[in-house]
Specification:
Blueprint (H helix, E strand, L loop, with lengths): L1 H43 L7 H6 L2 E9 L9 E10 L2 E2 L3 E6 L2 E2 L8 E7 L2 H8 L2 E3 L6 E3 L18 E7 L2 E4 L2 E2 L2 E4 L1 H8 L5 H5 L10 H23 L1
Parallel strand pairs: 8-9
Antiparallel strand pairs: 1-2, 1-6, 2-3, 2-4, 4-12, 5-11, 6-9, 7-12, 9-10
GO molecular function: phosphatidylinositol binding
Organism: Edaphobacter aggregans
Protein name: Lipid-binding SYLF domain-containing protein
């Protein structure tokens, strides 16, 4: 009887473990799709979006889809998203991130607010590779410019490591994130890659993109291509 109970407990534990793994993988795949949708929206709303030259100059892009649902002020909220960085061969495989804590200047009373963070220089890139850092603590951040083109009078090209945006109902707005902590989402990493992978390995281009992430990889490539074309047309004017 005791042996039967132990076998039943073992089978139940194994079944629950497999169910969790399947659920975790599906949740991660859905996040990849939602992040792809946010990337498409960047180029589809040029007058209310992120300027092409800002996207074109970013070293890394971090998307946290549906950061908040419901009508409340975000304070110490938690979200999970996707990061990718430029490499010599193109964009890196997606790395899974979580972000939480701090004081966030997000909108009130809006559903499905998306967060976009653009890492603009090598200092910001190194912070991201560390797998955990604090915005405005370890890394400097500022609300990003919005519109078809960034104003020549802004200093977004100078010392700011990260430009931050929120999106709701198709429109982007620059926001401030003070004290929020960005770190690797280890559970989602294991669910998609099958084992632990470091930010350093993934974002440096040392880890191939799994088949389940190819839709996101296509979306990031299309976003970058559109930004490059837009920049070239602007330079000719």
């Amino acid at each position: 009887m005791k042996m039967t109970s132990m076998l039943l407990i073992g089978a139940f534990t194994l079944a629950n473990g497999n169910l969790w793994a399947a659920t975790g993988q599906q949740d991660s795949i859905e996040r990849l799709q939602m992040s792809s949708d946010v990337l498409h929206s960047i180029m589809n709303a040029p007058d209310k979006g992120i300027p092409e030259e800002v996207v074109g100059g970013a070293k890394c892009i971090v998307v946290v889809p549906h950061l908040v649902k419901g009508g409340f002020v975000v304070g110490g909220e938690h979200g999970r998203g996707i990061a990718t960085c430029r490499t010599a061969e193109g964009w890196s495989s997606p790395a899974f991130v979580s972000i939480g804590g701090g004081s966030w200047g997000l909108q009130i009373g809006l559903e499905g607010v998306d967060l976009v963070m653009l890492v603009m220089n090598n200092q910001g890139f190194q912070h991201l590779l560390s797998s955990k850092f604090q915005i405005s603590g370890d890394a400097s951040a500022a609300a990003g410019p919005v519109g078809r083109h960034a104003s020549a009078g802004t200093d977004w090209k100078l010392n700011t490591e990260i430009l931050t945006y929120s999106r709701s109902r198709g429109a982007f707005a620059g926001i401030t994130l003070n004290g929020a902590v960005v770190q690797q989402d280890n559970d989602s990493t294991r669910a998609i890659y099958g084992r632990d992978q470091t930010f350093q390995a993934i974002l440096s281009g040392k880890v191939p993109a799994p088949k389940s992430t190819l839709g996101f990889m296509k979306a990031i490539a299309e976003t970058n291509h559109a930004a490059t074309i837009a920049e070239a047309r602007q330079d000719k004017k």
